[in-house]
Specification:
single chain, about 140 residues, alpha+beta, Jelly Rolls, five-stranded antiparallel β-sheet, four-stranded antiparallel β-sheet, 9 strands, about 40% strand
């Protein structure tokens, strides 16, 4: 019984590790080039997003810096809707207003913690598309 439980735990660990490494590879190969002339902050923020889910990422940004946020997902997935709000939930950017672009460039007057919310576009026909998959958020800055 001990060996069976150990085998199940090891299989679970390796399958979870494989999913996260695939997400990391996806972010490096497909999303990082979209930072263009912005310097990547070194963090690969990735998540497996499911069809009826919304995820949030909270991140601190500082004044006097120019930033780029890139949101990428696998080709077979529905379009990603992302919006950026401050900690008081004031809307800063909504990619729905920009034809669902996958990046946003900005500069802040003061340091703030921003909230990046992600979900799939709800009014799309998603029957023929993947219901979940890797979504990554990368941040770059220009010195």
């Amino acid at each position: 019984m001990k060996y069976y439980l150990l085998s199940v735990l090891l299989a679970f660990f390796f399958s979870v590790n494989l999913v996260f490494s695939q997400c990391l590879d996806f972010a490096k190969e497909h999303c990082k080039p979209k930072l263009e002339n912005y310097i990547h902050d070194g963090n690969y923020n990735g998540v497996v997003l499911n069809k009826d889910e919304e995820v949030e990422l909270h991140k601190a940004f500082f004044s006097g810096q120019k930033y780029r946020v890139v949101v990428g997902c696998e080709d077979e997935m529905p379009t990603i809707h992302f919006k950026i709000t401050d900690s008081d939930l004031n809307l800063i950017f909504d990619n729905e207003d920009s034809n669902y672009t996958d990046f946003f460039d900005f500069e802040l007057d003061e340091a703030k913690t921003l909230i990046i919310s992600l979900d799939f576009v709800k009014n799309e026909d998603t029957e023929s598309e993947q219901k979940s998959g890797c979504v990554s958020i990368l941040f770059g800055l220009r010195l």
